[in-house]
Each structure stands twice: as C-alpha cells, then as structure tokens.
Amino acid sequence: MPLERRLQIWLYGLIFLSTFLLAIVDHDSPWPLTMLGVIPLSWLFADYLGWTRFFTGFVANCAAVCGFVYFVIDIQQSGPSQYLPPVINLLMILVMVLLLQEKQRRRYWFLLTLSIMQVMIAAAMNLHTLFSLLLFAYVGIAIKVLSLMTLWSETLRWSQPSAPTPAAPVAPASPEKTPAAPAAAVPATAVPATAVPATAVEALHAGLWRPIAMSAFATAAFALFLHNVSPRLQGDQLSGANNRRKLVGLSREMSLNDMNRILLSDELAMRVNFTNAASGQIYQVAGDLYMRGTAYQRYATATPGRWEPPIMLELRQPPTVDSLVNAVEQDIWLEPTPTATLFAIGPVFRTADTANEIQIDPRTQELIRLSPPSPQIRTRWQYRLGTTGLTSSRQLPLTPDPRFRDRLQMGNYYQEVRDCQFFARRRFPRIAAIAEEALRAADALGGDTIRKTRVLEAHFLQSDRYSYSLTPPRNTTPERDPIESFVADTRTGHCQYFATALALMLRSQRIPARVVSGYHGGEFNEMGGYWQFRQRDAHAWVEVHLLPSEVADLNLGKPDGELRGGWWRIDPTPSAQRDQDIIPSRWSQMLDYDEFTWAELLAGVGGDRPPTAGSNRFVEALRERFAFHADILA
After folding, report:
1. For the whole model, what pTM was predicted?
2. Strands 254-255, 341-342: parallel, antiparallel or unpaired by DSSP?
3. Chain-centre distance of CA 178, in angstroms?
4. Phi, psi (5° rounding) for residue 532?
5. Pick from 291, 498, 347, 506: which is nearest to 420 by CA?
6. Among 58, 335, 486, 634, which lies 20 to 30 A Cα-Cα from 535?
7. Phi/psi of residue 564, each to 5°?
8. Which helix (H) or strand (E) holds 268?
9. Which residues pair with 330 in a beta bridge?
10. CA distance 334 to 440
11. Which of helix, strand or coil describes residue 528?
C-alpha cells in the first residue's frame, strides 16, 4: 500500500475519533453526528475515487466564508457562557471543507491541527472514564499519524532530483596566440535522486527518527502543559437548558407532587466521605444516613399541598468546637444544583478547611452557599464540614439546638415554636380526629411529647393501614386538602405525604414539628470508601422539638443536647414499602470510582483541598486504582 494511502487512512481514523469525542459531549448540535457520516464518504469520493475536481479552490473558499458567517450568527444568538458550541460547529465546517479538497502536505497539517483542537474542546467538556480511555487511544493514533506524516514529507523531499551541475566555463582565446583546438564541451551532470526508504526500519536508519521523536515529544509536552493550565468545564457549562446532564438537588419550595419525578431518577446527587477529625482515619458508618437539607415550617394556606420556603432572617458561619473527640469530618462532592442549599449530617461545625461562603441559618439549621450556582455554569462543588451527629458509627436521631438558651432569654424561642405549632383545625378536621383516635386507642392522650410522637409514628408504619407509592391516587375532592384525602381516603403516597401528615397530626396536639427534605439511605462504594446518593434517595421526614428535660428522657447516651434541647428526627414512611436499596456490584463500584478519581484528580475539579504534606495524590490514586482492579480481576 502506498505510504500516502496509509497516511490518509490513519488521519481519517484520527479525525473520526476526535469527532466522536465531540459528539459524546455536544448532544444538541447536529454537526458532530453529521460529520461522522461525512468522513468515510469524503475519503471514498475525494481521495480513493479522486472526485476532487468538482470541489475547486473557489468553491472551498466560498464554503469557508459561509461557515464563518454561520459562526458569527450562531455566536451572537448564544449567551456569553455558551461560546464553545458555535466554535465546535465552525470546526466541523472547516474540517468538512478540507476533507472534500485535493490533499496536499499543507492540508494534511491543517486537518491534524483541527483534530487536536476538537479534542481540546471535548476534553474541557467531559470528565468520564470512557472519555479518558478514548483519549489514550487518540494519543496513540496521533503519534502514528505524526510518524507517517513526517516519513511521507521526508520521502517527498528525498525523491526530488537535485539541480543539474552546470558545465565549466571556457576561457576566451587570446588574440596573440594561435588558437588551440576547441576543447570538448563538458556536459551537465545530473545528480541521481536519493534512494527512498522502502520500510519504516530503513527510514529510521536513514535518520528520520529524529523528526519523529521531536514531533512526539513536542506533542506530549504541549498536552501536559495544556492539561495543567487549561480550566476544566462541565458539559452543562457550555450548552443550553436542553443539555442531557441535568441539575440535581431539591427545591426550597416543596410540593407534594414534586417528589414523583425526583424519585424516578438515577442521577448522581452527591458523594460523601467520612474521616475521624482527630486521627484523620476513615470513619466507618453503619445504618441509615440522613443528609439534611431544607427545613419547612409553614404549610401554605393559599395553595394546598405545598410547603413555603423558609425565610432566612439571619445567616452566620457554622460554629466551631473546642474538642475533636467524637467529631467526624465529612467531605461532600455535590453535583450541580439549582439552589444554594447544601446537604450534610447535622449538627455541623466549622473546620479549618470549611469555605467562608458556607453559612447556616440558626433557626432551621439549613446550610446555604452565599454564592449561588449559576444556571449556565454547572460544576461539581466540594466542601468540608464537621459533625458531632455520629457516635459508635451510627447517626444520632437528635440535632441539638445550639442557641436554645440565648433565644429563650431573648424571647425568640416561643415565636419559633408557635410557627411550628400552627395548625388550622377547621382546614384539617380529619387529621385532628384521626390523631386523637390513634392516641386514645394507645391510651396516650395525656402522655408527654415523646409518648405521643411514637404513637403517631407507629400509626403510619403499620402496613395494613397505609401503603407507599410514587403515584398516589388523584384527589377526588378538590375542595379538600390533599393531605386530608391522604389520611382519610386514599392512604397511599410517598414520603412527602407521610411526613406532612405526621407533622400536622403532631401540631394538632400542640407539639412543635416541621418537615425536612434531604437524602436518605445511599450506597457505599467499597472501592473509594465513600457514600453516594442519587436522586432516587431523596426523602422527607419530620423533626420534633424537645425541651432539655425531654431530651434527657430519650437516653441517647450523649448529653450534648440535654442543656439546650434539640430537634428529634422521626421518619414515618414505611421503609418496607419503599423501593429496596439497590446494592451496586463490584464492577459498577469500580466504574464509579474510576470516574470519580478521573474527575477529582486528573481533570482538576473539586481539588480545593491541598494534599497532605509528603504525599502525591496522583501517584497514590493510581496505586490504589490498580490495586482495586487487581482485586476485582482476582
């Protein structure tokens, strides 16, 4: 096979791979997918069959100008944070124009340059492990193409004959001397062409290994430089709202019908890693985890079935702790969310690595990020917080009230309690009646807060009364609140229905209660030693406020809240009726850990926390990765 034909095949394969990498990340633009079909057809008609006479230089220039005009119009219609999709389209048009022309040395280099630019853009928009594997394949093919291009260029130079050697000039005859016999003219001699290397081995022996090695070294050096200085962007940062990568998280305004869509999604919401604050060792957690988000205190009166978002009157930095004994640090990698609400296990405290923009609402204990995420720039965000809510590898059911005594002295406590005790008895007659019936049946009408709460919680957990479903029946009585229909008629719903019904029943007994949304359960990844929560793990539960004396009656074995009171977590959703937790296989854990390691260490996102002294995060991560892979294969 001729050397140029081999160069064409490998170069077209390289362009096809770079276009495929762009097609992975740019789902909306039709140009990458169109180019995947144009590339083999252009090689067939333009290079193999030689039909380039129809695509002259004038036609190519006109097509390039039209492509630039399309680029200008496209970039004007795009927002300031969506500038790369028009650039991708322009690259596709230029590659198409070059592919349809007759190939020359200069055009080969143009095609290679455009292919490298495609990969640079694709690398900035993609962080998945599959992309990294394809990127390694691209580097190998690129080195092969560089070698063939260098070899082909050198053979063209060597195969050109040198200029003929001119004949020596003849001196003019002297007029005083007898003219000698004319000398025979010396013919011009042509230097024969240099022998062209027939194989790659001969080319290397002839000295072509130097430009090939220099090209490969320059490519690798440029790639390393670009990798360390260029920013990493998510695909959503570069495209509109129709991008496939969706926002995760929960809204600060909770409607009873919003959870259906969320619980059906397998999108990753966050990853959480726990370490002992004193020793820095991995902290093993057992049992169910509740990643707390927003606390709702006001059930909307104008719009049935909706909790109003809390009003943040004051924000401050999380408190600090004097001792790290029994304290746990939680590193959280939160996927792009539409709100500024953060999730964590409470109660939280500030560590040395906690970002200053993390604030907390002392009333609701909701964590807020002061710089809310942009709807155009959607990047994963890492933050670190400490917690004292884990003891003996289990999460405590109580969140102490850190400012109970201060608010009690200022009188703010009673107003907050009244907000969580508000109950419109005329609006919810069936809820109040069913709560009294349940308490009367258990002889708990005169009981304390803890006794009544446990009886009403058990009322919902009995499987013969209520059932869990993501598609609750429609409210057949529009004038009745959906929660009234839930407890009186249908008795079928998901976690938001159960939490809202229990909170209102407790309020009917003058017990302060509120609904909290967050994530519950999760999956533990043994490869990376972290927990991962998906959208299907979204959950809602109830928090009941207890006085200091009532906290002591819980016998939690930890006196943290005895002097301050706290919020007691109650989950009335029948766990047996919920979807069973999906235990990920070791292969899926390996793939998720590879993707996480690539995004965290290689792509540079989430690397806000510097490595520990004397450690190399990259080498350690690769060593752990290969060890895990060897364990899988064994």
Report:
1. 0.68
2. unpaired
3. 98
4. -125, 135
5. 506
6. 486
7. -125, -10
8. strand 268-276
9. 274, 385
10. 45
11. coil
Of 484, 492, 421, 430, whose CA–CA distance to 460 is shortest? Answer: 492
CB 9 within 8 A of CB 47: no
Q: Which residues contact 380 (CB under 8 A, 6 or more apart)?
A: 234, 333, 334, 335, 336, 599, 605, 606
CB 368 within 8 A of CB 341: yes
Q: Is-contact 157 151, C-beta < 8 A?
A: no
3-class state of residue 123 by DSSP? helix
Strands of 341-342's sheet, edge to edge? 341-342, 367-369, 358-360
3-state helix, strand and coil shares in percent for the chain, rounded to the nearest 5: 45, 15, 40
Q: How many residues does the chain have?
A: 634
Distance CA 409, CA 205 (A): 90
Whether the Cβ atoms of residue 546 and residue 417 lie closer than 8 Å to each other: no
User: Which residue, chain included where needed, has tokens 């998720």?
Assistant: 592
pLDDT-based confidence at 234, cuts 50/70/90? very low
**What is the spatial distance between Cα 264 and Cα 267, in angstroms, rounded to a whole number?**
9
**What letter represents residue 2's amino acid?**
P
Question: How far apart, in Å, are the Cα atoms of 61 and each of 75, 89, 111, 398, 532?
Answer: 21, 17, 16, 72, 53
- Mean pLDDT of the region 437-445: 92
Within 8 A by CB and 6+ apart from 189, the residues are: 164, 165
- Six token digits for residue 547: 């006085």
Where is average pLDDT lowest: 20-24, 32-36, 280-284, 556-560? 556-560
Choose among 113, 116, 137, 152: nearest CA to 5: 152
The rounded distance, in Å, linking the Cα atoms of 361 and 399 is 14
User: Which residue type does 455 have?
Assistant: V
| pLDDT single digits (tens) 554-586 | 766 554 544 577 899 999 998 744 544 556 677
Tokens of 497: 């229905």
Cα gap 381→415, rounded to integer Å:
36
Q: Give me the mean pLDDT over the 284-307 stretch.
A: 87
SS3 574: coil
Between CA 82 and CA 91, with CA 86 as vertex, the angle to 5 degrees is 140
Residue 604 reports pLDDT greater than 60: no
290: closest CA among 119, 518, 85?
A: 518
pLDDT at 634: 46
The CB density around residue 214, as the number of other CB atoms within 10 Å, is: 12
Neighbouring CB atoms inside 10 A of 83's CB total 12
The beta strands (E) that lie in 195-261 are given as: 254-255
From residue 553, give the alpha-carbon distance in Å to each of 129, 414, 449, 559, 564.
51, 22, 10, 11, 14
